[in-house]
Design goal:
Layout lengths: L1 H53 L3 H12 L7 H24 L4 H19 L3 H6 L3 H22 L8 H23 L13 H33 L1 H34 L4 H38 L7 H6 L3 H18 L3 H26 L1 H22 L11 H21 L5 H31 L1
Helix pairs in contact: 1-3, 1-4, 1-6, 1-8, 1-9, 2-8, 3-4, 4-7, 6-7, 8-9, 8-13, 8-14, 9-10, 9-12, 10-12, 10-15, 10-16, 12-13, 12-14, 13-14, 15-16
């Protein structure tokens, strides 16, 4: 009952957070415009690389230690904060060096203002401690409050591209407020870290932390390289289209990840039993197929209607990039399942790093090659190929007895139902161009077809997983 409440709390927070994001995102891109939104995404991408420098796996290591030893591990917190402070100083120095070479004064100003702010605010973020101490209800509530404050700041203050200053202000202000509230929750629950720093422990903290930092850096590379390549070779307007398309498909992908996030804790628990893990993996594949396949084909079929409707007429040119990235809705969940869920649950951290490294190499290499041959479409394809490389590498590294996970009848059911859905979408679209009617008709047909063909199979698989 207790852990069921945790899953419910986290699940509800994720769904509500996605709803807030789904409302805020189209408003933001419309008000900022293509070029300004692209520049903002470029700044965020650069800061994502620097955040790895500012937090080189330290939070991951401390989370494990506190989760294992709870309040006894509080003695490590002062050393963690000291190391984080030093890492942040290094990241800020690198940031100022990058900003000095930026030719656009508005981007240079954003890098300094937002970059230094987000790196500094990250120092006082207690999310990892709330997770380690199983304070999931408080963490979920604070996450929702932060997202709501951010959304309110965007809706109230960001009206035109000239109001861009309020975007980082909303992010940093909401994060700082909820971070401080998180520390009050920890104090109320008896978390009392000492104030003594022991540099003799730093090596023991840094060695395992750098492993996680390398994995995080590789993941950041294959997720963010496209933003840099598009701006360098294609310009700010193309960057705006690319950034909006990436964010669009990423929001859709997050709906798939809800199912994986619910199954992951039980998968980690079942890692000691190969038979139990096998059943859970097959259940996860079923959940992935039932959501990813229709989302991918539906995006291909309806992008011409949905993208301008959600993002605005000025983003009509983003229809092509969204379609090129539609396969991401299948590739990214595959990578998340095989690498971030199965390998991590089995404790194969080196294999986890190897899969992320493969994705980074493929994304960088193909971005630089395809941008010259195919322009924006080439970078979109490289973005998807990076995710497929992660999934393919992880598939080769998982245990052999799990590699038959694609022999799952739900995949065929989802594929057939999705094809019927696309046919209905085409038919309805020949009579009307209203996105809600077209998408609604397709979703209705998919749900009916998949329920008729796959209901018993799904109930059997998830019953076995329990």
């Amino acid at each position: 009952m207790r852990y069921g409440g945790f899953f419910l709390s986290v699940g509800v927070a994720r769904v509500l957070g996605l709803l807030i994001t789904s409302v805020t995102f189209p408003i933001l891109v419309r008000r900022l415009g293509v070029e300004t939104y692209g520049l903002w995404s470029y700044v965020v991408a650069l800061c994502a690389f620097l955040e790895v420098v500012a937090n080189p796996g330290l939070s991951t290591y401390i989370t494990q230690q506190v989760a294992a030893r709870r309040h006894a591990a509080a003695e490590l917190l002062p050393d963690f904060l000291a190391l984080r402070g030093l890492s942040i100083l290094v990241a800020i120095i690198i940031l100022l060096g990058i900003a000095a070479f930026e030719v656009r004064p508005d981007v240079r100003w954003l890098l300094r203002w937002y970059g230094i702010g987000v790196l500094s605010v990250g120092l006082v973020g207690p999310d990892f401690l709330l997770t380690a101490l199983e304070l999931f209800h408080a963490r979920s509530l604070l996450t929702l409050i932060q997202q709501a404050l951010y959304a309110a700041g965007v809706l109230v203050f960001v009206r035109t591209p000239k109001d861009l200053i309020w975007l980082p202000a909303s992010i940093l202000g909401s994060a700082l407020a909820t971070n401080l509230a998180g520390w009050l929750v920890l104090w109320h629950n008896g978390f009392r870290p000492p104030l003594a720093i022991n540099p003799g422990r730093w090596r023991a903290i840094l060695v395992p932390s750098f492993h996680y930092a390398a994995t995080t850096m590789m993941a950041t590379v294959y997720h963010r390289t496209g933003h840099l390549v598009v701006r360098w070779f294609l310009g700010d307007y193309a960057l705006g289209l690319y950034a909006a398309a990436v964010r669009f498909v990423d929001i859709l992908r997050n709906f798939v990840n809800i199912a994986l996030s619910v199954l992951m804790p039980r998968m980690a628990l079942a890692a000691q039993s190969r038979a139990g893990l096998r059943r859970l993996v097959h259940a996860a594949v079923s959940a992935l197929a039932a959501t990813s396949i229709p989302l991918m084909l539906g995006t291909l079929a309806t992008a011409n209607l949905v993208v301008p409707w959600v993002l605005g007429a000025s983003y009509a040119a983003a229809v092509g990039p969204v379609r090129w990235m539609a396969a991401y809705l299948l590739a990214a969940p595959i990578a998340s399942l095989l690498s971030g869920t199965v390998l991590y649950a089995l404790g194969r951290h080196r294999a986890y790093l190897a899969s992320a490294t493969a994705g980074a190499l493929v994304a960088v290499l193909f971005s630089l090659i395809l941008v010259h041959a195919f322009g924006l479409a080439g970078v979109c394809v490289a973005f998807v190929l990076g995710e497929f490389a992660v999934g393919a590498t992880a598939y080769l590294l998982i245990p052999r007895d799990l590699r038959d996970l694609w022999k799952n009848p739900i995949i065929a059911v989802a594929g057939f139902s999705a094809v019927l859905m696309v046919g209905v979408v085409r038919l309805v679209n020949s009579y009307t161009s209203r996105p809600l009617l077209v998408v609604g008709a397709g979703a209705f047909v998919y749900l009916i077809a998949s329920a008729v063909l796959g209901k018993k199979l799904l109930m059997q698989q998830f019953g076995d997983a329990r």
